[in-house]
Amino acid sequence: MTRKHDAIFDDVLSDLEAVPDASDRAGARFLKRTTAISDRLAGEVEEKTLRWIDPARCRMWERHNRDYALLTEDNCRDLIDGIRSQGQQEFPAIVRPVDDEDYDFEVICGARRHFAVSWLRANNYTQFKYLVEARQLSDEEAFRLADIENRDREDISDYERALDYADAVARYYGGKQKAMAERLEVSQPWLSRYLQLAKLPQAIVDAFPNIREIRERNARELKPLLAQPDTARAVLEEAGAIGREQARARTGRGSFVDAATVMRRLSRAGKPAQPKAEPEGKVFRRSVHDKGIAVVQKGRKVRIEFEAGMSRMQLQGAFDAYLKAEFDS
Questions:
Q1: Rounded to two decimals, what is the model's pTM?
Q2: Is residue 166 included in any domain, yes or no?
């Protein structure tokens, strides 16, 4: 073999020396397994057991902070399409075991995922199952866990969150907002605004197309109007009228009143009527009870204004009064 060939073989063999043999690979696997066991024993790795289950074996926790009845194919479309394209649910829901012959678990976090998988299974995608992580949780722990997961999600409305907080402050924290705010790690003013939202009168709530349209700022805007008896009465009367329109719309009779229009109408109802501005210039009338004409003089020009619809007698009398003042004085 020539020196040139010897050099080529040396290069090839030097590369092969960098590839571990079978015993080296087995040793690497053993080392990895040993490291993983050591991490678990040291408390640095937490094992979680995930399960694929039939969503029909899960019920919603009765104090879940999402109104499951408001979930639809349309508002869950992004999640339905994502699960279908991925071939499976990517992130597990949090559930806890229940003692119920009809259900194995109740859902603490993951109502939309439950709806999406259930919808897929009911629409010819029976291969999909619900991915869950089961935990042992107290009610207060379940509340905090659900709040942490959903606090920044826009698909849970302010009003749904407000009702959840109002229930929790009485149920878990003895009515003490400070204790609840500390436990949730939020400011007291922030929490107070949501608790105020939960106190909206039912007539106001019914005036909106649905509760997902009610925002925390709506309660702040209406609070001063509802604080005074006279304005509160006017606002609630208008809310009742809007609520009847919304009820008719739900039965297919007419269109819904959108949330922005609801707020405009309620705010307008709560504001005292402004006194009618006097017409610009000097007003001349046939009598004190008649409509008149307004005469405005600017330099050598005179502008005369009057309302459309005045009768001939009213106009003639008003002009006579003007002419008399102008030429007979």
A1: 0.60
A2: no
